[in-house]
Design brief:
This protein has a domain at 32-82. It contains 3 helices and no strands. It has helices spanning 2-18, 35-51, 71-77. The mean pLDDT is 85.
C-alpha cells in the first residue's frame, strides 16, 4: 500500500513538471527470495556488457558500480554459491 501511494504521488508531480509518465504500466517490485536468486540476477546484470561485446570482463565496464558496494564486492556476491 505504501509503495502504491508513493508511486502515485511521485508520478503525479513528475507528470505535472515534465509532461510525461514516470512509471510504466503494470510494473512490479521484485524481492529476492534467496541468496541464489540474488547471485543469479546480479551475475546476469554484470555479464550484460560482456555479452554485448562492450568489454571483455565486467570490471572493465566503466558504468558498473554501486553506492554501497565496490565492483569486487559485487563480483564476489555474484559468484556461484556452493
Amino acid at each position: 500500500m505504501l509503495i502504491r501511494a508513493a508511486k502515485q504521488y511521485s508520478g503525479y508531480y513528475f507528470k505535472q513538471e515534465y509532461r510525461q509518465k514516470l512509471w510504466q504500466r503494470y510494473g512490479y517490485e521484485h524481492v529476492f527470495r534467496d541468496d541464489m536468486e540474488r547471485a543469479t540476477t546480479l551475475r546476469y546484470i554484470l555479464d550484460n556488457p560482456v555479452a554485448s561485446g562492450l568489454v571483455k570482463k565486467p570490471e572493465e565496464y566503466r558504468f558498473i558500480g554501486s553506492d554501497c558496494y565496490t565492483v569486487a564486492e559485487l563480483l564476489q556476491q555474484a559468484a556461484p554459491l556452493s
